[in-house]
Design goal:
single chain, 173 residues, mainly alpha, 2 strands, extended, Hemin storage system protein, PGA_PgaD, transmembrane helix, transmembrane, membrane
Length: 173
Amino acid sequence: MATPLHEHEDDYLIISAVHNVPWWRRLLGWLVTLAFWCVWFYLWLPLLVSLARLGGMRVPVPGWARGIGWVHSRHLLILYALAAALIGGALLLWAAINLWRFAGVDRRGQIPAVAEREVAQALGIAETELARGRRSKVCIARHQDDGWLESVEVVQPLPPPMASVPEPPPRVG
């Protein structure tokens, strides 16, 4: 039988606290996401209409959109292609400049080690608690309401290190 990660019903992990968000905030988040997806599709509409008309389809253009220039599909496609080419060219130029600039240079320098005492002090917990958490395979970090670390609970410690196993003799034959 698997052991539960927490014994108390009110002892929630910070990762799985979606159920604590009020329904109206979840609904609002869903509606805002839906609205921005609609805007995203709306922004693609001129290109899709232009491609369809270029392919010979008779796509009706709404009256409010006739003055915007959707009717001139070839000109719009040329503008899209020009914008894509300019952006792509700028990115390729940027990549080429960085390749030339950093050729032969190892940019991955050694990161200075930070003492456990400094890390524990920055997190606001005891050094022994931090060391216990680092030596565990699975641990739960509980946070206070303001985001600071409250405690570190070891759920599954690391297995003991394996003794060195001698290599088998080479196979003959």
